[in-house]
Structure formats: structure tokens, C-alpha cells
Specification:
Chain A has 3 helices and 2 strands. Chain A is mainly alpha-helical. In chain A, strands 1-2 form a two-stranded antiparallel ribbon. In chain A, a hairpin with a 2-residue loop joins strand 1 and strand 2 (87-88). By secondary structure, chain B is of the alpha/beta class. In chain B, 38% of the residues lie in helices and 14% in strands. Classes of the chains: A mainly alpha, B alpha/beta. Chain A: Its EC number is 6.3.5.-.
Amino acid sequence: MSISVNDVEHVAKLARLELSEPEKRQFTEQLNKILNFMEKLNELDTDNVKPTSHVLQLSDVMREDEVRPSWPIDKVMRNAPDEEDGQFRVPAILD
Amino acid sequence: MIKEEGIVSLFRLSIKEIHNRLIRKELSVRDLVDESFNRIGAVDSQVKAFLTLNEEQARTAAGQLDEQLDSGVRERGLLFGLPVGIKDNIVTEDLVTTCASKFLSNYRPIYNASVVQKLKQAQTVTIGKLNMDEFAMGGSNENSAFYPTRNPWNTEHVPGGSSGGSAVAVAAEEVYFALGSDTGGSIRQPAAYCGVVGLKPTYGLISRFGLVAFASSLDQIGPITKNVEDSAYLLQAIAGHDSLDSTSANVEIPDYIGALTGDVKGLRIAVPKEYIGEGVAPGVRDKVLAALRVFEQMGAVWEEVSLPHTEYAVAAYYILASSEASSNLARYDGVRYGVRAKNANDLADVYYKSRSEGFGTEVKRRIMLGTYALSSGYYDAYYLKAQKVRTLIKQDFDEVFEKFDVIIGPTVPTPAFRIGEQVDDPLTMYLNDILTIPVSLAGVPAISVPCGLADGLPVGLQIIGKSFDESIVLRAAHAFEQQTEHHKLRPRL
């Protein structure tokens, strides 16, 4: 399986990344090489193998649904690039 | 104090020796903190281990701890007053935590990671934040957005990654010990390259709350120290269940210090043929075989075994880790924290421009790889396949541990390579992790301890154990240390 510059542009859009033309060319070449290496996994028959998504045998981890204090707004907003009246400020979404 | 080449290093003393001197008031916490900053002043320009120094707060904390000692209270934990360094992907309240990324260059967390909180309770002193590969993605420390860290044994060589700053700070005696994080080998590999001890605990043993997420099913925090005993002390202080981390294991924590008996008589050691075969540098193989002879002399027995799926681990790992990374790094949108790109016209533009300007090349490459692997039509071919291969790798380990107590091999196939040597070839760089990645996929614990030098650079011996059997890993590593002097070697800076 090989991927094209168009595929790289599509994936970059999904990942919300803006790539320069040299980056697109570089990633196409490198990702092809890496994905080609990944093909090695197809040497293995895994039809009857269960996937491991997690090494620990965890079932649903639940806690009591109780009201607890949250961080104060001023602390939460401390790292915001732009804020106003305790809210995150972003460019207009609608015209 | 031990004097060598004009440098007086309190950090050559054991934890117990320092502790006794503090209690007897032959030494103050201020002395220890001064030692740390003096050493940083003398050598850090050569190795660049630190990203942020916490000098004012550290000196204030040292003063407060000394006052406690002066007040006559004698009951202090053994870690009391010790200067520590923290990898910069572990959040520290009010202390900049950048993950070595431009994206978080101004990020001041509003809380402490659970491990940092535990170290605070143990009354250690945080000296600063340590350099790393951006978002812990890399095996050389060249992917830091700020500057590469250099190997103190030869500054033309890499220190390894991604916890390179942590390993260097300990090797260069800038701090007493450090915290790192390991996803595919990021504690063990730099520990091996820098001649210090690095422990990746069982997945779930140490809380990940406050560790900036890279690949959540693999990430683990662990200690980087100058010897195994220190590693056991640090692990004892930071292991344990944490309700703030839903993947934290609720298991009883054994006495790790008590496990250091020095006795490995009858220990059953498995040596995978894949770990000492093709691709392993002769100098590294020789040191590992010499280490096995030391174990034999101590009464342990070893046998060659096979971990047949080792050759598939790197491919499976990079699919899984990159997929999880692409998902975890979706949170960096330039809205709530981190750097926002200027001149964005609309909200979508904020996302695109902030992420494109904020992330470095390796991070983008992994986000691209992970997004591709998870995208429609490719999930089964890549992600699901890799999860199934992960099962086979885990089964390899389970089978060996039915008959053996530990698995031993090299930590890394070669000593540290030169800076810039592999930077344009990501696949070659990824293959450096071939001996650490299987352990990460299986979630089992492993330690890297120094076992000699090859070409003037340190070689690491990797000792792997069953899940939650850190005690036997530490016992074997400590017994080896007691019979050898490798861990006492320090680079000349």
C-alpha cells in the first residue's frame, strides 16, 4: 500500500494540520517508508487472536456520582490565550 | 564528601548517609540545594539537561525544611531534603511545564501531578524541569523544540530520549534523582546511554494523573537514579493506587527496600535469543554475556529462550502509540491553554495555524501516522491488527514467565549514536527501541542498569519481570550492582 501527496493532504486536514509543500513531500516519502515497514504485521495470522487494548484487566471504573467543588474560574482561565469575563474568547464562528 | 578532580559531590553519598548527616545537622538542605545549583552552573551549559530552573522556590523550600530540622523534629522520611529533577511532561503547579514544545512554552499548570504531590509529601526539593523529546516522542532528545540535550560521556553523542534530560541530570550529578516517563523505552534507553539506573514499572503501578498524555495505554512514570537502592526508595514513595487515574492499579505495594537482599541463588533467568542476535553491537553483547557470568557466579541459572514476536513489536508499537497520540494531541487547539497563532481569521484557522506553528516535525509525523491508521477503511488493517499483535507479544512474555523469574538482555542494541546521525531517518531511529518496546506493549516492569562501557560509552543491562513483580527485578539488579562497579563510573565533565 502506498500513499500519495493527496492522501497526505487529506490526513493533514483530518488532523487539523497545515503543511507546507516541502513538508507534504517529506511526509509522503517518510510515511510510505514507515507504512511499508508496518506491512510486516501481515506475515502473522491473527484471525483468531483477541486484540489487547489494555494490559490491565480493568472493568468499568466507577465512582460515586457526587457533587464536588471545581477549580475557580480565574485559575482555569489562567492559561487561556484569550479570555473575557471568565470565558474563552475565539474568533467569530458565524458571520 | 568525596572529592574527585576538584569537584566535591555530595550526590555520591547514599540516601541513608545523606539522611544521617541531615539528622545529625552535619549537613543542611540548603547545602544540598546549593550543591545542585552549583553543579548546574558548572556543567549544564555543556549538557543542557534543564529547561526550567526552580531556583527561588527551591531555596525557599530548603530554608523551610531546615527550619523544621532546627525545630527539633527528628522523624523525617529518607527522601527528606533531596534535590530532584522532573521531566517536563509531568505537571508542576505554578512551574512552567512545556513538554519541550513551543505549544506549551508558557503553560503554568494549576495543579501538581500525583507523583509530584507524593514527592512533595516526602519533602524532596524540586530543582527544575528537564529537557525531553517534544511530547515524549523520540529516542534521542533531538526533538526538543528548544535545544538538544547532550550525552555527558561524550557531548557529540545523544543522551537518548525521550527522558534524556532526566538521565543526564542524574549522570552529571546535577540532581540526586529524577523522574522520567517511558512509553516505548523512554526511561530505560536514556538510562542505558548515560550509565544510570532507569526503571519502567508495571503499567498502572504509578499514577499517570498529571503526566501529559502521549500514548495512554503505554505511558508510565518511573525513577531515574544513580543506583538500584535509590530506585527502590523512589518507587516506594511514588507507587500506589490513585483515584484520580482510572487506569491506576489497586494493588498492595510490597516492601521494595526489603527486597534488596543481594541473594539471587537459584534465580531462573531467561535470555531471549532475539535480544542478543543480529543487530546487537558486539561490544554490547559482550557486556551482557559478562553480566550473565556474574549472575552465574552468584548462583543464578540462565537459559536461552525465544520471544518469537519480537520482530513485530516496533511496527505494532508505532501504529498503537501514534494512533493514541493523534487522539490525545487533538486537545491542543489554541483555545484553552497553550500558544495561539496570531492572524487567524476564523475558528478553524485558529486550530490549523496554532497546531502547525506549535508542533515540531516528529510530533506532526506521528499525528499524521496515527490519524491515517485510525481513518476510515484503515482501522482494521493497522490499528486492530496491531492490537492483535500486541496480544501475541504479551503471550510470549507470559509463556516465558511460567518457567523463569526474570528475562535479561541488553537495553539498547548499540551505545549512544552521534547527534544528527539518524535525525533524517525516522524508521532507523524507531528501530533503536526494538529491545524496550516489547516490554512496554506487554506492560511488564523492566530496569536498565549499567553493565560496562563499549567504545567509551555506557551499556545498559535490561532486567524484565512479571507484572507487579518489581521486587524481583530490583533484587536481581541490586545483586548485580553489589558484585560490580559499573554504576559507580561517572562521566568527566
